[in-house]
Amino acid sequence: GAPHRGGTQSGFVDHGHHAGFWRDTFLSLGGYNENMIANEDAEYDTRLRAQGGRIWLEADLRMGYYPRETVMTLWRQYFAYGRGRAEHIRRHRVTPRLRQCLPVIHTLFLLGFLCLLPLSAWGAAYPVFYGSIISLFGVWLSYRHRKLSGLFSPIALAVMHTSWGIGFLQEFLFGRRDK
């Protein structure tokens, strides 16, 4: 859902992932906040927009991306992303977008249903529903791109959604307030 992840139209956006900056502006705003857990780029963009700056997305430019090599490193990456987003929201009192709330909602549902599991078979309802949805997505992705590797995407999705949600909740509920 984020324009910087494959946007097809150039234009002004709220966040310029892997952006280029005017050096003077970047330095005058203090650059990236190195005390942030993660999400320094979005936090900088919030400060830039608060000072009247704008961010241009050039849709014709593409960058290569190298994914994490193991499930554990992917987990740590997205756990940090979730913590960083919670810190950003708390620091700037911004309202998260729906797509940023979904991993948190997923994690709360997952935890709630898993707690219910010892008491009732209904505890499996959400995990089975979620697993089915991401599995169907994996089949569709594999078919669309004609690559069997798409069948592994449900593992990555489950790791990314759940670790992001747990990281967000941990930081939002228990993170330091004095950063």
Q: Which labels suit this protein?
A:
single chain; 179 residues; mainly alpha; two-stranded antiparallel ribbon; 6 helices; 56% helix
Largest sheet: 2 strands, antiparallel
The outline comes out as: globular
List segments where confidence is low: pLDDT < 50 over at least 5 consecutive residues. Answer: none
Neighbour order of strands in the largest sheet? 1-2
State which percent range the strand residues make up: under 5%
What kind of assembly state do the chains in view correspond to?
A: single chain
From N to C, what is the helix and strand string?
Answer: EHHEHHHH
Total number of beta strands: 2
Rg calculated over all Cα atoms: 18 Å
Helix content: 55-70%
Query: Overall pLDDT, averaged?
Result: 89
Structural class: mainly alpha
Put simply, the count of helices is 6
Distance between the termini: 29 Å
Notes on the protein architecture:
- The protein has 179 residues and is mainly α.
- The chain is built from six helices and two strands.
- Strands 1-2 form a two-stranded antiparallel ribbon.
- Helix 5 (125-145) packs across helix 6 (153-174).
- The longest helix has 22 residues, at 71-92.
- It is globular.
- The two termini are 29 Å apart.
What's this entry about, in short?
With 179 residues, this protein is mainly alpha-helical.
